[in-house]
Fold:
Amino acid sequence: MATPFLDRKRNLRITLSKDTDRVMVLNTDRILYCGLLGQRSVMTLGAHSVFVSLDRPFVIRINDGPWQERSVASVAPYVPLQVRSSDLMIATLHIEPETVDAAAIPWLAESSAEADLERVAQQVHSLYRKLIGTGDAGLTWPFDMDEALFGAPLPRRHIEPRIESVVDRIKANPCDQFPAEECAADLGLSFSRFLHLFRDETGTTFRRFRAWKRARSLLQYVNLDANLTDVALEVGYPDASHFSHSIRQIYGLKPKDIFAGSRRLNVLT
Structure:
């Protein structure tokens, strides 16, 4: 059962506070975050991620490679990375991999042409200015993120219908427990066949996919004045220790630090 403060959260929507330039737009398929970077350790995000500087360049290290100074960088899902910057703020665009045909989107590759990524960075900057009210025109919420950024939907990835039904179930209820054995039985597949097919169709394991979606669901609560134990239980973690470990492994920050850095964050869901 949802706790009262989380019930109230679902009624918080459009009005943006004008005393902050920090904003996050969040739906089931996309995240645009323009806010504090924080002192992060290694991150392992489950989305295609594009990091964009809002002022000064940042340095990024991808999968134990060398540190590179960049103003924009693209990182594939589930690849360990670190980002540091002397600038307090950064923009990140996260695109769920099961929703796009990455092979048809050149700038999602880590070897992307600089010009392709720079265009994406410009589009992120433009949308950010509109969100905080300093661009040429405001926005009416809700809006389609792909349309707002790129003028059209990104190419879709086609997933085998049985696996797509499991993907949709997890995305709709990321905090619930969905044992792989139960999903396999529901589809009339053996356990091993289900796990193999899931990985082939989504590009990752069932366990990792579910862990990312659960951690991702935390983001809708980060600007609330809330008890972290209540949030952990609401999001589906069995205890505070597991919650803290899992969140830090994915975001490179402890939950308490994520909430502390989000107090002045506008969240659109």
Notes: The CA atoms of residues 46 and 209 lie 7 Å apart.
